[in-house]
Amino acid sequence: MKNWKLALALIALSLTVFSLPALAAGVGDERVQARDLQGVPTFVKGDLGSLGNGGLRGAVERYLTDLTTDAFKAAGDEQFRAVRIHSDDLGQTHIRVNQEINGLPVLGAQLIVHIDSQSRNVLSVNGKFVPSIGLAREAATGAYEAIGIASSGAGILGGKSLDDAELVYVLDAAGQARLAWRNLIEYENADGLQRDHVFADAETGSLITRHPTIHYTKSWRTYDANNGTSLPGSLRCTNGSCSGADSVETTLDGNASDAYDYYSTKFGRDSFNGSGATITSTAHYSSSYVNAFWNSSQLVFGDGDGVNSGPLGNAFDVVAHELTHAVTEYESGLIYQNESGALNEAMSDIFAAAAESWLDGSVNSNTWKVGEDTWTPGTSGDALRYMNDPQLGGDYDYWPTRYTGTQDNGGVHWNSGIANLAFQLLVDGGTHPRGATSNTVPGIGMAKAEQIFYRANTVYMGPSTNFAGARTATVNAATDLYGTTEINAVNEAWDAVGVPGGGGGGGGCQPGDVNYGGTISAGQNHVSAGASASGTLRGDLTGSAPDIDLYLEQESCGWWSCSWSTVASSTSASSTESINTSVGSGTYRWRINGYSGSGITYNLCVNNGL
Predict the structure, then answer these.
(1) Which of 22, 244, 256, 598 is the most exposed place for a label (fewest CB within 10 A)?
(2) pTM of the predicted structure, to 2 decimals
(3) Res. 219 pLDDT band, cuts 50 70 90
């Protein structure tokens, strides 16, 4: 036992306490599968009432107003705007609802309400909700000044504004909402053309975050951008009929057609927006350009430099990868930053692999190589990324040791390997290639795995979904589509790459657990709300690194005041801790103490709703 650490932790508790509020009456704790850093539910499932009669948009907006007031700690000035309604073949309807506060959009905050199409009973609600309590209401800086400060902070030189700045709320890296000026800025850097939504703090002008709108295959070199950057360029092919096209253009045209056919055949999807939008692709972009991207309106492919790559559009999986960025933009809308951005990239790799296996007629070794048809043409068998062994391409494959810095938009490409490996193991079965975990994943095949991940991306994921949220989304998708075998396989796959999550596993989670997640540094304490309990209490804590501790505390009240005392602790010098102990009737809470390190992302799975 580290008694001296406990003494320091108790001192720190008096300085910094982060309260995770209990769920209010109306939705019992047993219905909460996961919470965010602020303790607000992110996935509730069970008996949640009905939307009642009337139009779906108005009904769901009224329903969420009541639900969030009762259960999500709303202040009353939050509003909801239903933005998309989709009904599926399972008899369910899914309604995506964006949040506003005092008429301003809250970017990254979206709730998805899942109902039985016939009865209109609510089956579950998931996503991100932001209570308005404590948020700034008026800007203290001018838009022009603030955007200038933030652009400089983002390292943007010579940027050009493409729209007027507007006030919004946006989620920062910790998931906290902040009042911001938003402006779309176009600029060029060493990686080529960029177009980012820049968010400047409306009180200080400092950079909060930026959301890239151009999604590259991989940004890693500098090339001449003086020639051929006007988009879309000259028309060469229309619906498979080409005139004046060269072999690169006809190959790209065929690959775009095949990518459309994959989504149509497997999911009944009519183009990237689901409504028949024309897929516009451009070849021969720039000069010696080793990249490809989706820019929110079309696909763009460079010819490569002949050394690092050949023409990117010649690789079918690269084309399917970029088209999937478009699908994701129209469905979950995963923000291209940090963990949600890594999932955005992973979805593109995953469905590129699935599309390639469909085109080939089987899953083979090349299925799990990204861009092998064009990457490093002088090296046989080489690839840009390796989904079955991400470290071969320099990517991360284990959530507790993932990249947490600011490069690569917070590791959107590097951390995509975590979900890529989980998907490959779900398809093929097996164990972690480096032995980071010891569990064996039972493979369920491509046909089932791709349906599970597609449903997760189109039904359950939202703009700010993280890895733990992706686990919950895929578990629920497997529950909708299949049975116990497939659900267990999904959980095993995420366990194999160390991803925590609620509602069925991850980092020690079990079905019915409540899942808390957050980020903590040395000297900080995060504390759950107290709740009455008795019997066996269990808490399993998993952190990114390097050392966090877990305490179970009981409340004791005298004549004048109440205090908390430790009844059990787990304080090893590691990033995982567990407590499993029997207690008498009383009021208890969990306390997480950051012992060493900074920016430690953790997941706590607990029973009995504490």
Answers:
(1) 244
(2) 0.72
(3) very low
Sorted by sequence, the CB contacts under 8 Å of residue 520 that are 6+ apart come out as 526, 543, 548, 592, 594, 600, 602
| Of residues 519 and 96, more confidently modeled | 96
Whether the predicted pLDDT of 507 surpasses 90: no
Q: What is the largest CA-CA distance in the chain?
A: 90
Q: Do domains 1-16+523-610 and 30-131 have the same CATH topology?
A: no
Fold of 237-330: Elastase; domain 1 (3.10.170)
The answer on pLDDT for 18 being more than 50 is: no
Fold of 1-16+523-610: Jelly Rolls (2.60.120)
| Domain boundaries along the sequence of the chain | 1-16+523-610, 30-131, 143-212, 237-330, 338-496
Does the annotation mark 322 as catalytic? yes
For the domain spanning 143-212, the CATH number is 3.10.450
- In DSSP notation, 264-318 reads HHHH---STTSS-----EEEEESSS---EEE-SS-EEEE---SSSBS-GGG-HHH
Q: Which of 61, 78, 249, 322 is catalytic?
A: 322
Q: Which CATH superfamily is domain 338-496 in?
A: Neutral Protease Domain 2 (1.10.390.10)
Q: Does domain 30-131 fall into CATH 3.10.450?
A: yes
**Which position has the higher pLDDT, 112 or 188?**
112
DSSP state of 392: G
Asked if 331 is an active-site residue, the reply is no
- β strands within 91-171, DSSP E: 92-101, 104-116, 122-127, 160-161, 166-171
Catalytic residue among 94, 284, 325, 413: 413
Span 534-557, average pLDDT? 84
